[in-house]
Task: structure prediction
Amino acid sequence: MIGYSTKSIELTAKEKSLLGIGVFPAFQDLFNTVADGADPDVTNWTVVENNGVVKIENHTTDLPGGWCLAASGANTGDDGLACTFDKRIISFKEGVETIHFASRVNPLWASNTGYVVGIGLLENDSLIASIQELATANECPASIVVNDDIPTAYSSDGAVIESTDLSAHISFNTWFDLLIIISSSDVKFYIDETLRATHETRVPSSIWQIAFGGTNVDNASSETIEVEGVTLWAE
Result:
């Protein structure tokens, strides 16, 4: 006789969020639903290719599943950007107390002045036009952006930004695991599972989208970021 256990399966808060149970929001894209070289899934992403490029880099050409590459062009003002504008939005509604944003990231940037590559959350009031928007006072809830050759953590309360230099923990052309946790009292930035910055004075509270990409600011070489999977969940 085969016995059946009546013990309930306990789901984690992350699993519940991704299944649409309990608190919201939840989002996950492993970039495994389109062909090699194609734009990311249009169900999730809006792409801005202003002389730049956004495309999936699969591990093999016939088996989707790899990362998304976003790169600017070679001239000032060129962009390669991806965001969830008008597709997925995130907020502290529906009982959400903390928002977790995770990805695996590889930044490649040319030596220049200004905001060039980044990933994070952006206020959902317009289509992203430049990676600088992920690090400016009124628009960035929480992000990692390379500015003046320095990888920097940013957060904003909608009026003033708070920033932390992360150059000791993030290197050019080196993959790292990113986790940002936002609550009503602080924003925590984890690099490779280690807490590297905590912002307590400029804490966001708004409605947000996910965004990443690169912008050319001074005719330098193309600015590139590679993103291997994006997951966002609530607790």
